[in-house]
């Protein structure tokens, strides 16, 4: 046990308040190992953000209507923050009504709920609804675009810049990458609300007078498809961010610059198939609660522990049944600060291979006892006072 105490002390000195997870890492496949026809593509697992496959993933390209992933993200975030509600009414401006391409033919002065606007953007990629929502949320589309770029910076989308909220227009200053699209898609599908709309195959608005059919054909063709967004312009070619979930694991397949819609869909399906066939999520948490740790000379005699980092690791199928080993000292000396690393959970594969090391942290501050506290503790110990 002395060795364990020494280990903890050294570990704490090196790591300080470091709280990330050292976990099993997968080397992304390249196009030599998995043939994809599109010039740029990415396959990402949603929970961990792990990249499984990449092809020219950081190449800046025009995104067409997959631009609306960011547009929808800001709308959903405003809904969930309470800034707007699904039942709010949006009044259509002359400018929004003027937009063509994919649209639902809004008329100037027409009033439509936020929910129907969001549905139209998600299902039929309605440019007029995207602009109407941008104006509703920020006053002007340009002000909304500034929010889009700010959010892109927050998400560390280092190769993304927006000049409009639709992707309708070819603009050299409007670009992103397959990797960045995967990141913003991951953020969007972390909001379950959006899947109420991106999973719609057919629906209608205006009391059933105007029918909607999803531009993402994988919604009806691919088992577990949860969305997400298609796009096409003459310069961007055919683009798609496709998401799908089966048995508790969800993948994001991004295709950019495909020659036609069928190749786009088949490439995305191939990536998703590869993900589901070969990978699983391994829990980095024990089923039983973590033990409490005794504290010496502290104002509290013990403290609880909490995990640092992610809850899962992405592993090849067959390695998802882990074994756990706690590495903890018998006790720690006060003072202890909340977040201080006191040990780790070693996660191993069934064959004993190391899968991850999860830091275990103090869940609260435990100050050191003062003079009178120490005196009282001694009194209790010696005289039972």
Structure description:
This protein is an alpha+beta fold and 385 residues long. It is built from 11 helices and 19 strands. The protein has helices at residues 2-15, 68-81, 94-97, 114-124, 127-138, 141-154, 178-189, 195-198, 218-221, 261-278, 371-383, and strands spanning 22-23, 40-45, 51-55, 89-91, 111-113, 202-205, 210-213, 225-233, 237-246, 249-258, 279-283, 293-296, 302-303, 305-307, 312-316, 323-327, 332-333, 341-348, 354-362. The strands form 6 sheets. Strands 1, 14, 16, 18 and 19 form a 5-stranded antiparallel beta sheet that branches. Strand 18 and strand 19 (354-362) form a beta hairpin. The longest helix has 18 residues, at 261-278. The radius of gyration is 26 Å and the shape is globular. The two termini are 32 Å apart. Residues 1-23 have low confidence and may be disordered.
Would you count the extended β strands for me? 19
Share of helix, binned: 25-40%
| Average pLDDT taken over every residue | 90
**Largest sheet, if any?**
5 strands, antiparallel
The number of helices is 11
List keywords for this structure.
disordered N terminus; 5-stranded antiparallel beta sheet; alpha+beta
